[in-house]
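Issue: copy button drops trailing tokens. Both records pasted manually instead:
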Amino acid sequence: MGKIQAVFHLPGRQAEGFLESLFTLMGIELAVPDHTTLCRRLSKLSVKLPVVPKDQAVHVVVDSTGLKVYGEGEWKVRTHGVGKRRTWCKLHLGVDSESGEILGAVVTTNDMADCEVLPDILEQIDQPIEQVSGDGVYDTKGCYDTISQRGAKAIIPPCSNAKIQQRANSETQPHPRDENLRRRNSAQSRTT
């Protein structure tokens, strides 16, 4: 009956009556539990959502979204029509690509860049990380360094104006971001 209530947005007693009439129309001779009995049983119901431990490395997808903050400014705009600068927060998430489980979350002010928050998101993830995917705002040397410190591979599309910082003939180990740019540049040169 709980699902009927949720689907049709009905209070308990209305859901009970709805099911009784539905059973009558369908010719089903079953008794519908009354609202009082369901309330009594639901109060004793214990729901435990299991956390499935993962022994394999996860593929984390990171991104952020804006959250509008309602407050005094919104009320003034509705009442008086006076515009005020709207405030909002950013919710940064790290999600397991396979299960959709949120592994890390950070809420910041709107002036905080996504690439600055990436270390805080990855710090919340206890299990090993195989790969981190994100959009172009994570295309910074710092993000690549943070991801490689966790032993993970970074899958981040380079910005259109991205430049290689360390030349190929350098004696030091090539940076993963520069390697990513070289792969993109060679793919582009093959298509043209």
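Record 2 (pasted manually too):
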Amino acid sequence: MPDGVRPTTDRVRESLFSSLGAVDDFVVLDLFAGTGALGLEAYSRGAGRVVFVERSKGVARALKKRLEGLGLADEDALRLMQTDARRAIRRLAEGGATAFDLVFVDPPYVEGGESEREPILTALFASGILASDAMVVVEGPTRHPLPPLPGIRVVDERRYGDTLLTWLTAGDPPAGTVSQDR
């Protein structure tokens, strides 16, 4: 596994996909793809198309080798973009990308809670690349939950040890606080 890559644990990934239900024919965007585990899991469960975005050249190279090893490197339904998340969102929007039904956002954890999550989510929801009923799943540390973001509604949050998964959709956030530990 490349240095600095923190893959989603099997337990969290299983719970995530159990909560999502069927992803048949979904168009999936896996930002901060790392090992590609979330996008590959979606593809194995019937997603029609997956775009992986990874900034690190070394990690992207390892993901490409993993796709090759799985016999998936030539799949038209799988695309790997070696660039940062903001640039990828902009390029997908400019290229008239098919609307994404499901997006995984799992940026590296940074000590002190500073993260790319908020600006990435703001850019993502403003980009026009999301389907009207798209679900965005954000993985982060439990000690740094997402703050309320304008135009983005928290649908659910679930804790798994030190990991917090937050499900988001477009819309006004509800008044009051976000639910915890469901």
